[in-house]
Amino acid sequence: MTPEALIDIFREALAVIVMMVAVIIVPGLVVGLIVAVFQAATSINEQTLSFLPRLLVTLLALMMAGHWLVRTMMDFFLEMVHLIPSVVG
């Protein structure tokens, strides 16, 4: 196994991780920003007001993208399994 092959595998793994995490985190960040602007505009400093919408949006994102997330992880895993002979041999 060459160092270039290892770097390519690592790069692809990082790309898959970043893509999957972004699908979960970005909606929560957007909602958190909207709630923060609303809180700043109205001077409401309630902690649950900032936490609950982010939690609900994150859970909703997991429910909506769950199938895609699992499929992406399975495809990456199967690709890694198919690469085992070329990596070992």
From TrEMBL:
Q: Which residues form the signal peptide?
A: none
Q: Name one GO biological process term.
A: protein secretion
Keywords on this record? Bacterial flagellum, Cell membrane, Cell projection, Cilium, Flagellum, Membrane, Transmembrane, Transmembrane helix
Name the membrane topology term: Multi-pass membrane protein
Record's protein name: Flagellar biosynthetic protein FliQ
Q: What does this protein do?
A: Role in flagellar biosynthesis.
**Source organism's superkingdom?**
Bacteria
Query: What are the record's GO terms for cellular component?
Result: bacterial-type flagellum basal body; plasma membrane
Where is this protein localized, as stated in its record? Cell membrane; Bacterial flagellum basal body
- What are the transmembrane regions? 12-39, 51-70
Q: Which family would the database say this protein is a member of? A: Belongs to the FliQ/MopD/SpaQ family.
